[in-house]
Amino acid sequence: MATNTREAHGDLVLENVTKEFGDFTAVDDLSLVVPRGSFFALLGPSGCGKTTTLRMVAGLEQPTAGRVLIGETDLTGTRPHERPVNTVFQSYALFPHLTVRENVAFGPKRRKASDAMRQADDALELVQLSHLAGRKPMQLSGGQQQRVALARAVVNHPEVLLLDEPLGALDLKLRRQMQVELKRIQSEVGLTFIHVTHDQEEAMTMADTVAVMNGGRIEQMGPPERLYDLPRTAFVANFVGQSNLGVGRILGTDGDFVMAEVSNTKVRIPKQRTEIHDGEVMFGVRPEKVRIHESQPDGTGNDVRATVTDVSFSGVATQYLVTVPSGANWSVYEQNLDVDPISVRPGDDVWLSWDPTHAFAVPVDEHGSKAALVEDGA
Amino acid sequence: MTTAVAASAREAGDPQLTPPRAGAKRRRWTPYLLLIPGLLWLTLFFIVPLVQLGSASLQSQWPGAPGYYYRDVNVGNYVEALRTYGVHFLRSLLYAGTATVLCFAVAFPLAYAMAFKAGRWRNVMLILVVAPFFTSFILRTIAWRQILADDGFVASTLRAVHLLPGGHITETWVAVVAGLTYNFLPFMVLPIYTSLERADPRLLEAGRDLYADRFTNLRTVTIPLAAPGILAGTLLTFIPAAGDYVNAELLGSDTSTKMVGNVINSQFFTVLGGYPTAAALSISLMILILVLVLGYVRRFGTEEVL
Amino acid sequence: MRRARSWVSDNIAMIIAVGVLVYLFLPVLYTFVFSFNNYRRSNITWNPEGSPTLKHWANPCGAPGVCPALVESIKIGALATLVATVLGALIAFALVRYSFRGRSSTNVLVFLPMATPEVVLGASLLTIFIQAFRMDLGFWTVVIAHIMFCISFVVVTVKARLQSLDPRLEEAASDLYANPRTTFMRITFPLALPGIVAAALLSFSLSFDDFIITNFVSGNETTFPKFVYVSYTRGIPAQANVIGFSMFVIAVLCVIAAQVIGSRRRGATA
After folding, report:
1. A107 CB near a chain C CB, below 8 Å?
2. CB proximity B7 to A under 8 Å
3. B78-300: CATH architecture
4. Which residue of chain A is at minimal alpha-carbon distance from C170?
C-alpha cells in the first residue's frame, strides 16, 4: 500500500476538502485541480486556511471530509512518508545534527537510493550551495538555509512540491532574488510547485495560477492577470492590488454596459465585467486606471469631483489620496509622464475620470462595505 | 453533498479512508505505555510509602512491648509529637528560612556576575559553581567543622578581635545556618543564573536609561526578570534545608540546635518505640512544607516552576 | 580616588562573585590539603612532622572500608542511573510529545518527590520496607530508593531538552519518507541525547552523594558518604580525602569534556 501511494502520478486534486478543529472550520469545502508541472500559488491573509490546506496535501493533517488525490490515486488518510509530496517549511526545519549534504540526502536514503549522496550533490549544485555541503545548518545564513531546504525537497523529484511561505524570513533584496531562482528551478526541473504566501506581489510574479483564499474558502482562482484585471469579489479586489470601491444601485443597461448610480454619480460597467445586473452592487476601479484633472473633462458620466487630501511623489509615479462626495477615500496612481512639477496640492478640488471599460463590479458583502473604506488590501 | 458521501464511506469502513483510524488507535496507547513503568515505580516507592508513613503515624504501641506496633487511629501521636518537639519544628523553619535568605544574598551577585559581567569566563564560572558539589557533601561539611573549630584559624582570629562572644563558632546555630547556606548555594545560583541569562540584556539597558540610579534599576527591572529563577532557587533551598539534620549533627550542639530532622532520625533509629512519633513528625513536616510552598508559589509565582 | 571608587562600583558584582567562588572552594581546598597530612591518630590537626606526605595518595585503599564503600557507591550509582534514566526519559517523552488525560496529574506526581524533604522520603521508605514489604535493608533497598528520587530529576532534565527542539523537525522527517520508527531513531533520539546524557550524569551525582535517604534504608550496607559520616567519630582516614578530591577532579574533567563536545556539536536547538 505504501509503495503504491508513493508512486502516484498526475494532477493534484482536492475534492470538497474540509478541515475542522473543534468548532473552528479552517478549510471549508474546498475543491481545486492543480495541473501537473504548473506553478500554483495559494494566496491569502493569515488565518485563511492556506497553510492548513498545504499540510493536508502533505499529509501532516488529515481532512475532516473530502479527498486528496494525485492523478487517480486517493491519498486521503495516508501519512506524509507514504506520499510523493515534499515540503519546504517556513522555518526550514533543517536537521541541526546533520550536515547540509546529509540533510539533502535524507529523502533519497529513506527511499533506499544507492546513489543518495550523488543525488544530494546534484541538488546542491542546482541551488548553488555545493561549497557548503560539509557545513552544519547553524553555520549558514537564512538565505542559504532556505536554499538547502529547497534542495532537500527537490532532490526527491516529488509529484508535488509544497512551499510554506518560504521567503518570509528573508530581506527584500534576497526575496526578489529567490523568487527568480524558484521560478527558474521549477521550470528546469518541471515539478508541480504549490506556493503558499500572503504576499500578493510574490504570488503574481511567480505563479501560473493564483487562488485567493479567505475564511477557508477559495474566493477566486485563475491566472494572475485575470485576478488583477477582473476581481470577482470585494475581498479579491482589495487583497490583490488596491481598488477604489463604492456601493451603488443598478439603474438599467445601456448596450454593452450596465448603468449604476454610485453616490449620486452615474457610472457605466461593461456587462462582461460584472456578474450582477440588478439591485445593489459594489463598483470598483483600480487606482492606476483613474486620471486626475484640474478642471472638469469633456464628456459626462464616468467622472467624479473630489478633494485632494494627500500627494505622495515616489519617482516613477505619484499617488494621490482624494475624498469623494460619498465620504470614501479613493487613491489615484499616475505615472509621472511629464517633467513639469505637479500642480495639484492637498486641499485642491479636482475631477476624476476613467475609461468605463476598466470598471468592474462585485457583489456587496460585509467585506465590501468595509473594504470601501480600506486603503490597503494586504 | 459529496461530503455526505465521503462521511458515509468512512462509516462503512471504506479502506481508502480507514487507515488513519488504525494508526490513531496505536498512537493513543503509546503515551500510557511510556508512562507506566516510571509512574508505577513512583507509585510503589513514593506514594505507597507515604501512605504507609501516614498509617505508621497513627499506630499505637503494644503496651509493655516497646518497638511493636499495631494499626490504630491514634491522633494522640501527633499531639504528643508536636507538643514535645514543636520547638524543633520552629527552629528548623527558622534555620532554613535564614539560610535561604542568606543563600539568596550570596547567590544573586554571583548569578548576576555570571550572566552579565563574565563574558568569556561564563562557562568557567559555571563549572566552578557546580564543581564543589562533586566532593561528597559529608566531606565538605566535616571540612567546615574543622575550619570553624575552636582551635582553628577562623575562630581564633574572631576571638582575638572580640567578635566572638560565645567563644566558639561550632556548636552554635551560626555554624548550622552557615553550613545550610553553603550546602545549597548551587541550587540557588543555577536557577537564578538561568533566568537572568535568558533575559534580554536590552531590557536592563532600557532600565538604566530610564532610571538614574543603579539600585532602582536592580529593584524594578533585574530582580523581577530573575523572578522565576529566584522562586525555583528558594524552593530548592528551603525544602531540603528544613528537613536536613546532617548540618545540625555535625556543626551544631547536642542540646540547643537540634532540628526536626535530627529528632525524626533519632526516633527511628535510637529510640525504642519511636516509630509513630517519628512518622507523625515526618508527616507534619511534609504537610507544613507543602502548605508553605503552595502559598509561596501562589503568591509569587505564576508560571510552572519547572 | 574617584576612579578607583567607580571601578569598584562597576565591578562590585564580579568582586563579590569571585569571593563567593573562593568561599565555595574553601572546604574542597581543606580536603585537598589534609589529604597530605601525616597524622598519627586522627586527621584533624595538621602534623608538621612528615607532612606533606604522598603516602595516602600512593595507597588510596589503605584504610579499611574506604574502597569497598566507594565500590558500593559506584555500583549503586550506576544501577540507579541506568534504571532512573530509562524510566524518566520515557515519562519525559510521553509528557512532551503526547497529550493525554492525566497529563497535569502526572506532572504533579513527578514533581512531588523533589518537593519532599529527604527525611520524609527516607522515613517513608523505611516504614514500607520494614512494615509492608518486609525486606532486608541493604544494597537493593538503597538502589530502589535512589531510582525513586532520581526519576524526577531525569524527567525535568529530559523534558527541558525535548521542549527546546523544533517539533517541525519530526514533521520534516516524515515528509521526507521516514516512517515513525526511523524518525525516532534518526531525528528525535539523537537530538534528545544530550538531555538524556545530562540527566544520567545528574542522576549519578545525586545517587553518589546521597546520605540522608541512604542512611535510612541501607541497614548494614555502606556507601561512601555513609562511611565518611560513620568514621567521623573515630577519625576519617585521609584516604577518604584522596578519594573525595579525586571524584571532584574526575567530575570537573567530565563537565569540561561535555562543554567542549557540546560546543563542537552546536546547533542542536532550533
Report:
1. yes
2. yes
3. Orthogonal Bundle (1.10)
4. A93
Q: What is the pLDDT of residue A88?
A: 95
Cα distance from A177 to chain B (closest Cα, Å)?
A: 33
Indicate the residue of A1, A62, A65 with minimum beta-carbon distance to B3.
A65
CATH 1.10.3720.10 fits C71-264, yes or no: yes
Domains and CATH numbers, chain A: 2-226 (3.40.50.300), 237-371 (2.40.50.140)
Task: Summarize pLDDT for B179-207 with one digit per residue, the tens.
Answer: 899 988 888 998 888 888 877 778 878 87
Q: Where does residue B251 rank: exposed (0-12), middle (13-18), buried (19+ CB within 10 A)?
A: buried
Q: Residue C171: its chain A contacts at CB < 8 A?
A: 60, 80, 87, 89, 93
Task: Report the residue of chain A nearest C262, measured CA to CA.
Answer: A97
Q: How far is C229 from chain B (nearest CA, A)?
A: 7
A186: alpha, beta or left? (left if phi > 0; alpha if psi -120 to 50): alpha
| Angle (CA) C232 B274 C119, round 5° | 55
- Non-local (6+) Cβ contacts of A214 within 8 A are A44, A45, A48, A235, A239, A367
Residue recorded with cell 589529604: C35
The ranges of chain A with pLDDT < 50 are 1-2, 368-369, 371-378
Greater pLDDT, B128 or C51: B128
- Judge if the upstream peptide bond of residue C48 is cis by omega within 30 degrees of 0: no
Residue B118 and residue C12: Cβ atoms within 8 Å?
no
Nearest to B260 by CA among B237, B281, B238, B288: B281
Domain ranges of chain C: 71-264
- Compute the mean pLDDT over every residue in chain C, rounded to the nearest whole number: 86
Binned at pLDDT 50, 70 and 90, residue B102 comes out as: very high
- Check CB contact under 8 Å for B45 and C125: yes
Q: What is the dihedral of CA B62, B67, B70, B71, to 10 degrees?
A: 140
Those chains having 3 or more beta-carbon pairs within 8 angstroms of chain B are A, C
How many angstroms separate the most distant Cα atoms in chain A?
76
Report phi then psi at A160, rounded to 5: -130, 130
Output the pLDDT for position B27: 64
Task: Note whether C126 and C81 are within 8 A (CB).
Answer: no
Q: Flag whether residue A16 sits within 8 Å of chain C, measured between CB atoms.
A: no
**Interatomic CA distance for residues C24 and C21, integer angstroms:** 5
C→A contacts (Cβ < 8 Å), by residue, are 166, 168-169, 171-179, 182, 187, 190-191, 265-270
Q: Are strands B65-70 and A24-34 parallel, antiparallel or unpaired?
A: unpaired
Distance of CA A143 to the CA centre of its chain: 22
How far is Cα B231 from Cα A97, in angstroms, rounded to an integer?
34
Alpha-carbon gap, residue C242 to C251, rounded angstroms: 14
List, as ranges, residues 158-197 from A with C-beta within 8 Å of B.
none
- The model's confidence at residue C267, banded by pLDDT at 50, 70 and 90, is very low
Helix axes B76-112, B275-300, angle to 10 degrees: 40
Contact of A295 with A373, CB cutoff 8 Å: no
Ranges B16-20, B210-214, B232-236: which has the least confidence: B16-20
Dihedral (CA of C208, C209, C211, C216) sign: negative
Q: Tell me which chain A residues have a C-beta less than 8 angstroms from the C-beta of B11.
A: none
What pLDDT score does C5 carry?
A: 74
CB B136 within 8 A of CB C224: yes
**CA–CA separation, A268 and A304 (whole Å):** 13
Decide if A66 and B2 are in contact by the 8 Å CB cutoff: yes
CB atoms within 10 A of CB B201: 11
Classify residue A149 as exposed, middle or buried by CB count within 10 Å of its CB (0-12, 13-18, 19+). buried
Q: Which residues of C touch B113 (CB under 8 A)?
A: 13-14, 16-17
